[in-house]
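Tokens as discussed.
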């Protein structure tokens, strides 16, 4: 019979083994993360059916070079021992790399709730930090041992398949050979095509559900990683930017427009303040708004931050555009949304040269204080290249022990900040950014913090409050505790009375649904994008007020310049929250990669409008509805049209500004 062919037997034996391996990884993924499921089991089974076809495609793809070799006599592994050995090495190395990528994918999803794509490889820019975080966050010895066992088992099976090629050939006639090759060819092509339809099975077919876990269960991470390579080419579109310029003139309140030069610059003259205040910006690592007790969180994880915010101007509708600390660093420093599609803007050498109005604080001493290394995500270049007089204080300069991969503990980081501010000999005011990191995987907690004790809470109660583990809950409490201690010490210092503190969460996290929040917080994944922001200065700013107009990360830099009272050029996409007029309907930009169908969006007072990057698939959602996923664009066509136009303008302008905000001074004509 035709299946006696050694070549066909070898190929299909390996395809079956690889398919089984990939299917096992798929089932492992589902079993590990099924608690994230919000859709129904019918959708999950359908996702599994799609995913298994992707797995079969990958198995066939891997064998294509050997199939080609079988068709060329001089390279045929059936007859040439050298090419048989080369084929074995190729298969084993391919399998090793793929198994490691599957392991990386499982860790990436555990960390970010996302399968790996081309942007995930940017986590490996600094392999020591990436591996260090993994080592301290996960049982890496056990994981590596399991992966080693898997590799060994699969390699052993590959060796067995190569004995097929050295067996004595079984006699069969030409017609059987032709029939066998034809049938096998059809099977092979169908396995790659994946469907009986006119168009082959696409990665977008996995996006049939609104449940991100269901979609993730349908994706093959290796194929998806390859598909997203093209995303790296996405940049700005000048034509679209020009077509939206008039709209952005109104959006940004540009008083002297220049459509020819596509200038977004506004010259700002503020009242001059005789005794300029010190300004301290504090990154609250991984703190979403739903973490705050004042949001209704029943576990009271942030008593100190809540007390400070009650005596502050508190913004309860504040958003960041895209999840990632490095993206928030860039947005703060430049005032431009980091909408770079693959790598963070700070990591792109074509983007790193940026104008920053922090330089308008020309009479200020400037500090950037972090517990780790400023080489992370190229932050050092972003800062020193664009703010030459900034003094970076990082782990290598700090005489405190390293806690984990992110450097020293936040408790010691605030001690460094306090010592720096108290010991400043300058008569000038200071501007400082303090970047915390302890409230981040691996959630390491120091042992020597006075007044802090670990609290154990039932897992179901933790989950209902939006936490996924005891360590995460206590890390949040630790950050809150260290902030409280820092402010207590600051109050006894001479600099305190003339200092303005700005606190903001750099991003939220993808955790269980927080039951005290509106349904949209979880269903629309706003938990990752809505963060606390408040301005605290009891001697300078009257506190105790809440601002509920929509505000966003890029508003911080203009607000800082307003507090300093300097004249400056506003080239940001933000507004001075304390001095500028509040727009009638301010919007915040969101690049939502947490939803099943990734999209760009704007959020307003009552609605959330999303669309794909090319402007299609527009949907409008009501934020306070019990069914926020329902599309209501047909009910509110005016809001849909207005928001979609503004979203396109904001998004296209942000992409353009990333490449057109160099430090060379722009002329306003």
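Sequence:
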């Amino acid at each position: 019979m035709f299946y006696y062919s050694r070549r066909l037997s070898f190929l299909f034996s390996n395809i079956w083994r690889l398919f089984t391996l990939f299917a096992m990884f798929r089932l492992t993924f589902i079993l590990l993360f099924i608690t994230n499921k919000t859709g129904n089991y019918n959708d999950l089974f359908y996702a599994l059916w799609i995913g298994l076809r992707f797995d079969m495609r990958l198995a066939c793809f891997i064998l294509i070079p050997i199939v080609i070799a079988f068709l060329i006599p001089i390279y045929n592994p059936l007859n040439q021992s050298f090419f048989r050995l080369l084929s074995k090495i190729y298969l084993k190395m391919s399998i090793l790399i793929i198994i490691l990528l599957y392991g990386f994918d499982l860790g990436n999803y555990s960390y970010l709730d996302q399968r790996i794509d081309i942007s995930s490889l940017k986590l490996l820019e600094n392999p020591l930090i990436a591996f260090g975080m993994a080592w301290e966050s996960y049982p890496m010895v056990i994981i590596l041992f399991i992966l080693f066992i898997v590799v060994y088992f699969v390699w052993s099976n590959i060796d067995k398949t190569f004995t097929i090629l050295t067996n004595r050939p079984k006699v069969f006639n030409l017609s059987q050979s032709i029939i066998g090759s034809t049938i096998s060819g059809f099977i092979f092509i169908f396995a790659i095509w994946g469907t009986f339809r006119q168009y082959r099975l696409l990665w977008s077919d996995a996006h049939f559900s609104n449940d991100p876990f269901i979609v993730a269960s349908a994706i093959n991470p290796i194929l998806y990683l390859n598909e997203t390579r093209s995303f790296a080419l996405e940049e700005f579109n000048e034509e679209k930017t020009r077509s939206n310029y008039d709209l952005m003139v109104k959006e940004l309140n540009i008083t002297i427009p220049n459509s020819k030069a596509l200038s977004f610059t506004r010259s700002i003259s503020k009242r001059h303040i005789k005794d300029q205040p010190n300004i301290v910006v504090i990154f609250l690592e991984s703190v979403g708004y739903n973490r705050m007790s004042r949001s209704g969180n029943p576990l009271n994880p942030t008593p100190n931050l809540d007390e400070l915010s009650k005596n502050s101007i508190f913004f309860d509708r504040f958003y960041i555009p895209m999840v990632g600390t490095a993206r928030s660093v860039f947005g703060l420093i430049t005032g431009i949304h980091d909408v770079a599609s693959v790598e963070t803007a700070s990591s792109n050498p074509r983007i790193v040269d940026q104008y920053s109005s922090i330089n308008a604080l020309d009479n200020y001493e400037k500090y950037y204080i972090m517990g780790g290394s400023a080489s992370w995500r190229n932050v050092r270049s972003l800062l020193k290249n664009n703010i030459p007089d900034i003094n970076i204080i990082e782990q290598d300069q700090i005489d405190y022990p390293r806690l984990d991969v992110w450097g020293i503990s936040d408790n010691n980081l605030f001690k460094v900040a306090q010592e720096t501010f108290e010991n400043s000999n300058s008569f000038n005011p200071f501007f400082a950014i303090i970047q915390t990191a302890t409230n981040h995987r691996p959630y390491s907690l120091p042992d020597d913090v006075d007044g802090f004790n670990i609290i154990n809470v039932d897992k179901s109660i933790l989950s209902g409050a939006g936490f996924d583990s005891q360590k995460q809950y206590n890390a949040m409490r630790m950050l809150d505790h260290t902030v409280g201690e820092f402010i207590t010490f600051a109050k006894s210092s001479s600099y305190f009375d003339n200092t303005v503190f700005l606190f903001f969460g750099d991003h939220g996290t993808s955790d269980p649904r927080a039951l005290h929040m509106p349904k949209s917080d979880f269903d629309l994944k706003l938990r990752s994008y809505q963060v606390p922001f408040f301005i605290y200065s009891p001697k300078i700013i009257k506190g105790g007020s809440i601002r509920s107009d929509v505000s966003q990360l890029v508003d911080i830099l203009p607000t800082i310049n307003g507090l300093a009272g300097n004249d400056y050029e506003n080239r940001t996409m933000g507004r001075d929250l304390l001095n500028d007029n509040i727009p009638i309907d301010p919007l915040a930009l969101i690049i939502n990669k947490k939803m099943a169908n990734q999209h760009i969006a704007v959020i307003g007072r009552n609605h959330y409008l999303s669309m794909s990057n090319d402007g299609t698939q527009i949907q409008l959602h009501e934020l306070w509805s019990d069914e926020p996923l329902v599309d209501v664009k047909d009910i509110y066509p005016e809001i849909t049209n207005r928001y979609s136009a503004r979203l396109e303008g904001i998004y296209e302008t942000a992409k353009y500004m990333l490449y057109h905000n160099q430090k060379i001074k722009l002329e306003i004509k």
